[in-house]
Design brief:
By secondary structure, the protein is of the alpha/beta class. The protein has ten helices and six strands, in the order E-H-H-H-H-H-E-H-E-H-H-E-H-E-E-H. It has a six-stranded parallel beta sheet with strand order 3-2-1-4-5-6. Strand 4, helix 9 and strand 5 form a beta-alpha-beta unit. The longest helix is centred in the first third of the chain and has 19 residues.
Amino acid sequence: MPQRNAPAPQAQPVPQVCPALDWQAIDRVFLDMDGTLLDLYYDNHFWLEHVPRRYADKLGVSLDEAKAALLPKYRRIQGTLDWYCVDHWSRELGLDIALLKAEVEHLIAVHPHVLDFLDVLAARGKRRVLVTNAHQKSIDLKFRRTRLGGHLDRVICAHDLRLAKETPGFWERVREIEPFEPARTLFIDDNLDVLRAARDYGFRWLMAVSAPDSRAPARDIRDFPAVAHFAELLAQLR
């Protein structure tokens, strides 16, 4: 799904300073997908432009009218598992969302330096686990389009656990299938609500992504250490 604020094109990013991490104290890295490893531009374009166009065609209304009708539907379930569910939106809108996603799949892109970062993590003996709210159909499409799947040790989908990452109880369910120590796990995500839930659970190492959408300005993040580009983390590991 799109980020909370629609992107403002061609704006200059906010400078971010990546704090040094104690990699000796980190055994594994949990990573979000959309906006963290993958450019959020695809999702923002899909939900804010492509779906409204197809919805306007279906209803026989203008694009602006379609957008006005969709935004309250988005906001009503924001942060719930249905918010991320391809099947929910297919039923809700009467559109084949999986098919529409494939229509613009050429926009799917891995953020720069991500694959190198994942490879160096493996070389340093760090376990690499994707933890995503994305629906299984979205994961399958994006893995087919990118080489991301071959650079991960495990994929954990919130839909399989029946809880969104923002939801209390989520990390306990993760721990049942992927035992981990919160004090020795780094979690990187662009969603600040998700990071807050992880902080409440007891994660010691948390990192926000300040530039999830390559065509939008970087955010000025104050609540968490932040990184704009994976080159900064890659330099630390090397």
